[in-house]
Amino acid sequence: MAFTLKMAWKDSRASRGRLVLFSLSIVLGIAALVALGSLSVNLTSSIHDQAQSLLGADISISSRSLFSPGLEDKVKTLGAKVARGRTFTAMLVFPSQVGATRLVQVKAQEDQFPFYGEISTEPSGVVSVLKTQQAILLEQSLMTQYRLHIGDQVKLGKLTFTVAGVLKKIPGESLAASLLPPRVYIPYRLIEETGLSGKGSLVSYSMSLQLPQGVDPDKTVTELKAALPKERISFETVVSRQKQLGRVVDNVTAFLSLAGFISLILGSIGVASAVHVYITQKRATVALMRCLGARGTQSFGVYLVQGLALGLLGSLLGGLLGVIFQLLVPIAIKQVLPLDITFALSYSSLFRGIGAGCIISSLFTVMPLLTIRNISPLETIRTSSLNETNNSVSLDPYLLGVILLLTFSVLLFAITQTHSVALGLGFVGFLGLGFIGLYAVARFVQWITKKINIRSLPFVLRQGIANLYRPNNRTSLLLVSLGLGTFLTLTLFLTRTSLLRELSAGAEGASANLLFVDIQSDQIDDVSKLLEDRGAPLLRKAPIVSMKMTAVGHVPVDEITRTERKKRGGWALKWDYRTTYRSALTPSEHIIKGSFVGKVPENTQIIPISVEKSLVDDLGLNLGDAIDWDLQGVTLHTVVSSVRTVEWRRLETNFLVVFPEGVLESAPQFYVGAVRALSPEASGLLQRAVVEMYPNIAAIDLQMVQETLDNILSKIGYVVEFMALFTVATGLLVLACAVINGRYQRRREAVLLKTLGASIAQLRKIQATEYALLGVLAASVGCFFAFISSSVLAHTVFHTSSITTWWIYLIAIVSVAALTLITGRLSDKGLEKLSALEMLRSEQN
Q: What pLDDT does residue 388 have?
C-alpha cells in the first residue's frame, strides 16, 4: 500500500494540472446536485408556507350545522387558538340605485383570523377598520358593476354598511367557493344584528385552528375523525390545501429529482471519459513499471488511487461550489424570482451529494482502469500504433462485476433521489439503453466507414472519414460521451419545456377567470357576439345537460345505497350531474385509461362516455362498466370507454362525465361560457353588460382564486426554468470537456500528415470533417433517445403532453455539432504546428 500511494503521488506530478481539469466535470455535476437538492428542500418548505398562508390556519373545520358539544370539547383539549367564522348567501341592496340588488356570499371571521397570511384588500390593511366600524369589503366586480366607491352605503339585512375597500383575497377559501356568488366581508360581531343567519338560514360554520408548536395537523385531524366518526364535518389542512395545485407540486419535485440525477450522471460520464484518455496516455508508463517488477494489481492500484482522489476532490469541490451557489442564489435571482424562499443550506443534500459523487464517480473511474491489469511489459518496445490496433474485447469478470455494482449504485441513487422505485428503474433503464445504443452505433460507424469506398472523395474528406476507424480513433469515446450528454441534457430540456407549458396553463392571459352560467340555447350566439365586441371573446363554451345516475353495473342506485357499497359511492350515487358533450378533450384533461370517443351515430343504444378518475375510484368502476342515467324521464344506457384526469386548478369548463356528440344535442340544456377579463374593472364591465341585457344569466368571478393560483404557479415556473438552465449549462460543459480530453490522440496523426506534406489548412479541414461527423452522429442518436425518454416521462410521470416540435431537435443537432467543431478547433489549436521532436518530448513527459 505504501508503494502504491508513493507511486501514485510521484506519477501525478507531471499530470496534476490535467487531473484537476478532468475533475471539472464532476465538480459541476456535484455542484448542480447539491444546489438542486437544497433548492428542492427550500422550495418544498416555501410551497408549504404558501399553502399555509392560503389556508390561514393549521386546520380548518367546517360544517353546515352548529358544531356539536363533543367537537367543541375535543378542540379545547388541543390547546389551540380558535377563530370562528360563518358563511351564508344573502341579497345585497344598493340604496343609491333604485331596485338594484345582488345575491352575494357573506363571509365573516373573528378578528384574530388569519393566523398565517393576511386578508388582502385595497387599500392595503383596511380590514382593520372592520374591528371598530360598521363597514364592509366588496369584490372589485361588485364595485365596478354597480359603480360604487369607497365611502358609499350598501344594505345587508337589517344593517347599512359603509364600503371600506375592495376585497382581493381571503385565506381559507376553497376553490369551490369561487363558483358561488361574489363575496363580501363583514365584521363577525355584527352577524346576528343583520338578522340573516338565524333559524332557517343556510349557514356554513367554520373553526380555524392554530395548533401548538410541533403538533402535526394531519395526525390531529386523523384523531378527531376517529373520535367523532358520526359528525358531519369536513377538515382541511395545509397538505390537503396543497392538493389544489393538482400535479404541479409532485411534478416539480420529480423534475428536480430528474435534474439532480442527470447532473451527477453527466459529471460521472465526463470523469470516465477523462480517465479513459488519461489511462491511454499512461500505457507506456505502466508497461515500464511492469518491466521493473511491478505487478498488474500494483499498477492498477496506483491509478486507482489517483482516480479515487480525483472523484473525492471533485466531489468536495462540487459540494463547496454548491454551497457557494446557495449563498449567491438570493443575490442572483431574488429580483427575477418573486417567491419568498428562505435560502438555507440543506446539510442532508450536501453530504448526500458528496457521498453519491464519490461512490458513483469512483465506479465510473474504475471501468477504464481495469485495462491496466492486462498491459504487458512488451508494450515498451512495441509501437503505439500496434498497441492501439488491438481492439479485441474479452469477457472480463472484474469488468462485469464493476458494471453490476455501478448499475446497482446508480439505481439505488436514482430511487433515493426520486423516492420512487418505478421512477428510479425508469431513469436507469433509459440510461442503460442510451449507453448500449450509442456504443452499438459507434461500433457500426467504425465498421461501415471502413467498408465503404471513399477513394473518389477529396483528400480532406477521405482523411476525416478514415479517422473514424483508423487506429487511435475517438469514435467510441466521443460518440458515447457526446451522445449521452446530448441525450440527458435534451431530455431535461424537453421535460422542462413540457412542465413549464403545464405551469403556464394557469398563468395570466392563458385561462378563464370569469364564467357566465345559465346561457340559454337561443342566447349563446348573441352573448358570444356581445363579448367579442367588447374584446373578451368566449375562450370556451360548453353545453350542460342535467341528469341523475340510476344504475351502476345494471344494479339500481337505490339497491346499492342499501348495501355495503354505499360506503364507496355515497356522494357519487346521489349527485345531480351536470354533464356535457364534445368531440375532443380540453387542455385540462388527460386520458389515463381507454380511448376517448368524441362522436357516435344517432340512436346509439349503448353510449361510450368518459369519466373522471375520482368518480371512477369512488364508485369502483372499470373500463366497460355500464352506467344508466335518467334524463328527465328518458333512460340512457352508457358504458365507460375512458378514464380522465382533470386539472381542476384550471378554472375552466371541467366536468366529471363527458358524453360524445350525437346523443344529447336535442336534450334540454343551457350553456356556460368562459372568458378572460384583463382586469377586475374589465370583469365588472363585462358582467354588467351581459346581466343588463340577459338578467337570467349569472356571472361567476374567478379573479381572486385565479390570481392566487397564478401567483404560486408562476413562481414555481421560475424555479424550474432557472434550475433546468443551470443543469443544461453543466451538460454543455461536459460535452466540451469530452472533446477537449481527446486532444492527445490527434498529435501523432497531425505530425505525420504534416511531415508527409499536408498543409495547415488541410489539417484543419480534416479535423473539422471528423468533428462535424462525430457531432452530428452523436447529437442525432442522442436526440432520438431524448425524444423517446421525454415522451415516456411526459405521459407516465408528469402526465403532460410531450414536445413534438421537430425544430427543437434540429436546433439541438446543429448546436451540438457546432459546439463539437468549435471546442475541437480550440482544443486542437497548435497541433498542426507541432514538430515531431516536440511531440516525442511531450510523450516522454
A: 45
Q: Which helix (H) or strand (E) holds 193?
A: helix 191-194
- Measured between its terminal Cα atoms, the distance across the chain in Å is 25
Average pLDDT in the 559-576 region?
A: 64
Taking the C-alpha atoms of residue 312 and residue 641, their distance in angstroms, rounded to an integer, is: 56
Residues 243-261 have pLDDT tens digits of: 655 455 566 666 667 777 7
- Tell me which residue has cell 387558538: 81
Specify which residues 698 forms β-bridges with: 517
pLDDT: which is higher, 6 or 163: 163
Which candidate, 390, 371, 385, places its Cα nearest to that of 304? 371
Q: Whole-angstrom Cα distance, residue 179 to residue 726?
A: 41
Confidence of residue 328 (pLDDT cuts 50, 70, 90): low
Q: How far is the C-alpha of 123 from the C-alpha of 118, rounded, in Å?
A: 13
What percentage of the chain reaches a pLDDT higher than 70?
Answer: 73
CA distances from 251 to 247, 261, 422, 503, 795 (A): 6, 15, 15, 10, 12
Cell numbers standing for residue 764: 484543419
Compute the distance between CA of residue 112 and CA of residue 173 in angstroms, rounded to an integer: 16
Residue 827: C-alpha distances to residues 276, 352, 764, 835 (Å) = 17, 34, 12, 17
Q: Is 681 helix (H, G, I), strand (E, B) or coil?
A: helix
Mean pLDDT of 814-833: 73
Measured between alpha carbons, how far is 752 from 272 in angstroms, rounded to an integer? 29
- Give which of 89, 121, 115 is closest to 102, Cα–Cα: 89
Confidence class for position 620, pLDDT limits 50, 70, 90: confident
3-state secondary structure of 155: strand
Q: Identify the pLDDT of residue 540.
A: 83
Among residues 815, 811, 831, 818, the alpha carbon closest in space to that of 766 is found at 831
List the beta strands (DSSP E) in 277-426: none
Residue indicated by cell numbers 364507496: 568
Q: Backbone phi, then psi, for 635, in 5-degree steps?
A: -90, 130
CA-to-CA dists, residue 56 to 45, 59, 189, 207, 234, angstroms: 16, 9, 20, 11, 16
Residue 646 · residue 616 · CB < 8 Å: no
- The set of cell numbers assigned to 491 is 431530455
For 253, the grid coordinates are: 419535485
State the greatest distance between any 2 C-alpha atoms of the chain, in Å, as a whole number: 109
Tally Cβ neighbours within 10 Å of residue 437: 19
**β partners of residue 107:** 87, 185
Q: What is the mean pLDDT of residues 639-659?
A: 82
pLDDT of residue 714: 58
Is the backbone peptide bond immediately before 114 cis, with ω within 30 degrees of 0?
yes
| Cell numbers standing for residue 110 | 373573528
Q: How far apart are CA 432 and CA 446, in angstroms?
A: 21
**What one-character DSSP code corresponds to residue 664?**
S
d(CA 519, CA 21): 69
Indicate the average pLDDT of the chain.
77
